User: Fold this.
Amino acid sequence: MSIKALFKSLRLRKFATGLLLLQLSLTIGLMVNTVILTNSAIEKLNKPFMFDVDQLISVSLIPTSGAFRDNNYARSIIQQDIAKISELDGVISAAHYNQLPIQRGGWNGNLQAADFPDDAVLPRELQYVPQFYSSKIGLDNLGVRIIEGRGLTDADDITDDYYNPDKNLDDIEQNIVLTESTAKAVFPNKSAIGELTNNGRVVGIAKDFVVGPTLTGPAKHFAFFGNFMFARADFPQNYLIRVELGKIEQVKEKLRDTILGVQPERDILTIRSMSEHLETFYSQDTGLANLFAVLSLLMILVTVVSSFAHAHFHVTQQRKFIGIRRALGARKKDVMLYVFSENWMLTLGASLLGIATMVGLNIALSQVINIDKPNIILYILAVLVVLIAGSLATWLPAYKTTKIPPVIATRTL
Amino acid sequence: MLNMKNISRIYRSDTIQTHALRDFNLEVKEGEFVAVTGPSGSGKSTFLNIAGLLDGFDQGSYELDGVNIQGLNDDNLSRLRNEKIGFIFQNYNLIPDFNLFDNIDMPLRYRGFSAAKRKHLINDALEQVGLASRVNYLPSQLSGGQQQRVAIARALAGEPKILLADEPTGNLDSLMARQVMELLHTLNEAGSTIIMVTHDPDQARAVGRNIQVIDGQITDHSVYAPAHENASIVVKS
Amino acid sequence: MEMFNYYLKLSVRNLIRNKLFFTLMISTLAVGVGVFLANIAIIKSMSADPIPHKSNKIFNVSLNIWPNDNPDAELLEIMRYDDAMHLLKNDIATHTMVHYQSQVYVRDSESTSLARHKAKVRATTQGFFPLTDAPFEFGGSWQQDRAKQLVISNQLNQQVFAGENSVGKILEIDGTPFEIVGVLKPWKLKPNFYNAAYEQAFSSADDIFAPIETAMDHEWSVDVRSSATEHIATVSDNRGKNGFFIQAYVQLDTPEQKQEMQQYLDNYSQHRKEQGEYLRANNNRLLDVNQWLTYQSVVDERMLAFGLATSLFLIVCIFNASSLLLARYHSARFETGLRRAVGARIKDVFYQGLVESLLVGMCCAVFSLLFGWLFLQISIELFPSIQRTSDIDTTLILIGIGIALVTSFISMFYPLIRSCKTPLSTTLK
Assistant:
């Protein structure tokens, strides 16, 4: 069997061959870009967050009754909630937070040294530093260590002062803990310990963890922690519960009843493990990757259909010639090879074109979304998938050729 | 009825050009039965294709039933084919999953006849070929000879001016061939003009007029024998 | 018509005769169209004009003002209470409304049950109703700025009062009674232009419309973005302070009105600057509804990316169908040749092909709608946030049928031309 003859036979069907080539190459292009999207979605989820994702449950709830307008009442309920939750079997610790790490929006503000000159420009990433207010165990509870200075203590709690109408807020100087990257950014040339910021005095530095994963560079670790219970009737309250490994589900089940047992007039918005929280955060990315994956699957299906049809019609058309080949001594496997090699040649051609569609689609997609560049391994994988799918689909028509009797050569059609 | 003057047809490929017909002249009168013979590749089929308006020509003039073919567009050619010509092929060319009625109905559809008229014509045509009782049969349920008779009925149904037959008995055994030839003769006697390409000298000899095509030209207008007497011998033996 | 019926009969026969072939062809085409359709279903409502009869007359107001000298030159969509009050004083616009979003828990004060319903609040001004053309079922707007009165949505009325005329009834919120003065008909803007900022364009519809002063007096929290340059203790504390949380819209029916409004805003910025505030690089901005939605990138880029991929997929499916058809017409050469020989014109052959592609297109349309629906369900399963934006309506179904017919015609076109052009004399013996 000669390649030349194959070429000729393909050239005779320029249009059909051209369509199939384009189709296969688009499939390769789409598959590669799908895998890129899927990979980066998975990567984002599997990146180390540098706090104990596996041991945390988050609860978000909001009061439904006017009773919580009384701040003292609201605070006492939160304290009772935390106490009850902490007693649950499997719970290591629990704390209230004004916001959670890894969320959209949130409570952010500028953070600068107290002596930062008025006319200097604060870098943009320091204008929106997440401000965390929790109890003294806020960082411990997340599994984040203090690496310099000290953690927050009961003495650092400003809640009573804050809600005391006789106190002037400007007189309250709170103590705060910065993450390592934050400290370096705000006080680039010295230790931050003991320094004063516009948000209080730095008493400790915590190890970096991921706060805002959509940010790039050190900014994704920016945050400071204060010891304060933010209790307003009209804002959702967050609890983070740290549990023993493997006890997530067991504790989750009991949380709703435990909390509503303390005071029923609350709407519990969500109870979810930190990993569920992350999945929700990334659901748009994984969702898109999933859609692309379904589309790729469909494309492979269409490839199978068209490879099958192409080979099928080819064989039907060439019945007589195949018969002649058989009459002239071609073995069954020779004719099968003949049909297969046509498919393989098409795949080869499509894989060359596929480089262009892959890069082209990648560029087109990068105009609207963030997408990594294609790489050679993914490309080869995609070509292999198309090759295997095409070959499988060609098998049936190829097998049928072996049933063509050599005697057909002597008959007129 | 049919008048070809100096018809030339040249097939060109990249390297060679073949004169399929060269200065071909032929006149066929109404009611004639003409047999065309000649070796393979002599141009018989080209002649028949041009006569049947299936193929064009490069030079010369062709008049069919008073209409000059030169310069007619596809619409007009199709109309002429439909109204004036009936084809009979060696392979019958019946559509396998159409029953006899639908097969014969096909050319009539393009004529725009009403359903009642079509039905009438189809039954008449089938009557003529002796298959009226099998109107709902599929071609595959008939013998080869019967299939060819259906094809003849299809050619006849539109009441054409001329029947063109290309080796009509080529695929039939001798008995069936004889029946088909008998039918053609009957039709000719009833007034149909017929041009038939054939390999069989006996068949040729049995019809009114013989022409032989060699190398794209008519070389011989010989008439083998008085047509009708011989024909009756061929048909009856 | 008779020929049409004849061709239809022939096409049906063809379809039945070549079952495998047409099943493959129609199903791949239908999958392609279906996927594309599902994508359109999502993008269509994202890019829709929510208030077509006056979208070019309603403008978002973004003010050029900031208390600090800030290098961030982008205008904020939100403004201070004082800015909003100044804007409301204008007599230029046909209607002016300002609003912020909140959330409360309500119960029917006469109900014996203590259960409360979560309700999304639009704290706004009377101008809201004529500006948005919100349709009333019962009652109307409140008349006083500090009235303890509410307008509620049809949905909330269904939930709390089982859909009855609840005008005059009392809702209790945080222990305070509020009188219902109006109930809306079912009403949902998609996308919601007045709440398009901060990715809210497809969030759930508002349940309660309340006077903004009343909402602030009762300390109803600011649910979407609020930003402050000084300490603000409570919602009502925003009055006279630098807390940014209110969005504003005006209806300007003529270009003159728009020009005057621009002047009015510019004068205000200038006045504020003279009081020691700072201007930003951009001027006061008036964007009409569609400009505003574009500016807010209401159409999800991910869906555009997916749209790109589904279009490619559709093309692939058309290619596939086309090459299948080419093979099919090739094998039908004999019949075509025969028809031509017995007198069919090229036109007739083409017309027959057209009827066949119409039939294929109709089959394809049915399956496309089916696949489209299926794929939309899968999409929602895989990508839940789509649910809020995707809509199946008559237009979409018509679009689907249209696309199916067009694609089947496109796939048929080249093969049909080829089959019409086959020289007659070569096919028959």
